[in-house]
Each structure stands twice: as C-alpha cells, then as structure tokens.
Write a structure and sequence with these properties.
CATH architecture: Up-down Bundle
Mean pLDDT: 92
Number of domains: 1
Number of strands: 0
Strand content: under 5%
CATH class: Mainly Alpha
C-alpha cells in the first residue's frame, strides 16, 4: 500500500470518526442550550472511569499473554516520556525563554508534554495499522507506564515544581492508585489470564460494555477544548511540538539500540509516542491548583495538530504498514 492510499484510509477510518466525535462534543452545548457542561462532563468521565474503561481493560488483560515484545511498548514510551520531560524541564525552568510564566503554568505544560492520550487516541491508530489485537499495546502501556508515572513523577512535578508550598498536604499515591477501578480490573484480568481462568462469555460481555470508552471520552474531549480561547502561544506550541514530534522520534531512535530489529511492538510504541496531550493533565491541574487554562490549551492544540503530525510521521517512515 502506497503512502497516499494509506493516508486516505487513515483519514476515513480514524480521523473522520474522531473528528466527528470531537466536533459533536464542541457543538453540543450550542445546540442544546440547557446543557450543564461541567455536570455532563463530570458524569461522563465517571461512567468511563467506573464502568467502561475497567471493562475493556479486563477484557484485554484476561486474553493477552505477557511477553517481552508486549512489555517493550511501556518501556520505550516511558523512556521517551522521561527524555521529553528532561527537555521540557530545561526549556521551561532553566532557560530564560518565557519569564512571564508562573510555576503553575510551567508544571501544567510539563505534565501535558510528557504524557500522551495513549489509549483513547492511540487505540484507533494502532488498530488501523496493526489490527484489532493491537489494542493490547495501549492497555499495557497505560497500566504499566502512564498510570504509575503520572501518579508518582507527575504528582511530584505538580506539587514540587508547580507549587512552593512545602507545608501543603501531599496525597497518598498508593491510596489514590488503590481507589481506581481500572487498576483492579486490569489486575483481575491479568490474574485470570495467568491462571488460565479466562471465561470467554464474560470477556465478550466486558468487551461489549467497554466499547463505549473511546467514543465517550473523545466526545468529552470536544467539550473540554477551550475553542474560543485557542490562540497560538509560543510556549504552548513549543510543548506541542515536543509531544507530537520529539517523543515519537526518541522512541524510533532508541528502539534499535535495545532491540535487534524493529517489530510490530516497537512500531506500536512509536504510535503511542505520537499521541496528543492526555486529558488527565487537566485533571491534575485542577486537583493541584496548577494553570488549568494552559493545560486545556495544550490539550486543544496538540489534538488539532495531531491530525497534521501523524501523516508527517508516516511520511518519515516511523510508522506504517
């Protein structure tokens, strides 16, 4: 398949439905004036966190054998995220580029620039390139890399780099993790697979419920992006460039240094690296009193420009089929 035909297929199969869902979320309050956006967004997020997402995690984890290739995805994406984080730290905290920024803004941008929307955006792209079974790469990357790093290093960035109040109460990372249903669903599914206790009808039922995860979250993403305030700002676009271009380049660069050849899993890690800023960056900004506006702008610009950078990365040959 040549580049042009593959790009057209990508536009129709992936970018069109995602764009329609984002657009629906953006226009919903306009067409339905009685919509309480914050209430609706909170309720939908809770449905995803407590029902849809745990179901899909259980379904995938309970049917996926763990092997070296699979684990290479969270390893490579994690290393690239840490390198990108180091670059962002230098740009935002050590170089005199944007002196007007507060530490709350710098921390919010650093969090958004380090961690991508690797499940909700990553899964449709992975499935396009590698088939339905490729969802496992996003699941294991989320559970073994994104979530542990976000709720340890990410919390440290928010509370230490984003605030100078050393007397403020720090959240219990373990306590936060233990209250997340997705963690337990993933662990239960993994235990079932390892103990050969997988029950196919239950897996199918869970998968059916979990299919709502991505459409609902992408719809919420459309409601989250501050469309009327999407003005280009140098610091925002710089962080977007690091997230969308530097991170996948780092994965593509270091993968051959660790693995003898680039296989499907390693290219899947590159795809995961291409994803725009995660929505959890806004959650962290709200929770730890960072700059929520900057986090929302970063999510918005990175999501919009992702439609341009992914075809560019395909042209470079970093991903493809």
């Amino acid at each position: 398949m040549n580049y042009l035909s593959q790009l057209v297929d990508l536009m129709v199969q992936v970018m069109l439905p995602l764009s329609l869902l984002v657009g629906a979320g953006a226009l919903w309050p306009r067409f339905f004036g009685d919509t309480q956006v914050e209430v609706m967004r909170t309720s939908l997020n809770r449905m995803v966190m407590y029902l849809f997402y745990p179901c899909i995690l259980f379904a995938v984890a309970s049917t996926t054998p763990i092997n070296r290739d699979l684990l290479s995805v969270p390893l490579l994406v994690g290393l690239a995220s840490l390198v990108s984080g180091a670059v962002l730290y230098v740009l935002l905290y050590r170089l005199p580029l944007w002196r007007h920024l507060t530490d709350q803004t710098r921390a919010a941008l650093m969090l958004g620039g380090m961690f991508g929307n690797t499940f909700n955006i990553g899964v449709p792209v992975l499935v396009f390139f590698f088939g339905a079974e490729a969802m496992r790469y996003a699941v294991f990357n989320d559970m073994l890399m994104t979530m542990p790093l976000v709720w340890t290093l990410g919390v440290w960035i928010a509370t230490r780099l984003g605030s100078h109040d050393r007397n403020a109460a720090q959240p219990s990372v373990i306590g936060v993790m233990l209250t997340m249903p997705p963690i337990w669903a993933f662990l239960l599914g993994t235990a079932c697979q390892q103990l050969n206790l997988t029950y196919e009808p239950l897996v199918n039922a869970s998968r059916f419920i979990g299919q709502a995860t991505i459409p609902v979250i992408i719809f919420v993403l459309g409601m989250t992006i501050p469309w009327r305030n999407l003005v280009p700002r140098g610091e925002i676009l710089t962080v977007v460039g690091i997230k969308l271009l530097l991170t996948p380049f780092i994965v593509w660069l270091i993968a051959p240094l660790i693995y003898s050849r680039m296989g499907e899993a390693q290219y899947a890690a590159v795809v995961e690296g291409t994803t725009p800023a995660m929505m959890t960056a806004l959650l962290l900004a709200d929770r730890f009193k960072l700059d929520s506006g900057a986090a929302a702008l970063l999510i918005g610009w990175s999501t919009i420009l992702f439609w341009l950078t992914l075809p560019l990365i395909m042209a470079f040959g970093w991903v493809g089929r």
